[in-house]
């Protein structure tokens, strides 16, 4: 028998032709509101995000203080383990987390939903989803457009020097006009 006590349940949401999955890790067990679901739908619509990609990437709102070991997200016949976010997640707004299975999850830090706009955070993370789909030729073109030196690794531990982070910020800016950080 499967232990579901560590399961992070997902709600399937179908809203205005968009289908997506949303869940939360929180110690208050509050419901995910219709307002939040509507905000996610509007953000995906405004960002011209692919409906087919949206249904393949769960969005999990997370209170980092409620994360305990062994949590998993059941999704499309997989158990996606929720890793240890560590202390640095207290300062993160969101994380795009790819798994070796080919699945991905967007984690949104609940603590920042009141301080920063969900639009800012979620559109940035959706940019990561798109960036993960780029081919080497696409990246070469992007490097040229952004004057990124050839040979610069796509990912970097230094956020400010990461072409992947740059792409996510440019994607966000393109659809929201929010400042590129």
**How far apart lie the N and C ends?**
47 Å
Indicate the structural class: alpha/beta
Q: Reading side by side through the largest sheet, how are the strands ordered?
A: 1-2-3-7-6
Strand content: 15-25%
Gyration radius, rounded: 16 Å
Q: What's the overall geometry?
A: globular
- Could you report the average pLDDT, rounded to the nearest whole number? 89
- Topology as H/E string? EEHHEEEEEHHH
Largest sheet: 5 strands, mixed
- The counted number of beta strands is 7
Helix content: 25-40%
State the helix count.
Answer: 5
Query: Runs with pLDDT <50, length 5+?
Result: none
Walk me through what this model shows.
This protein is an alpha/beta fold. Helix content is 30%, strand content 20%. Helix 1 crosses helix 3 and helix 3 packs across helix 5. The chain starts with 9 loop residues before the first strand and ends in a 5-residue tail after the last helix.
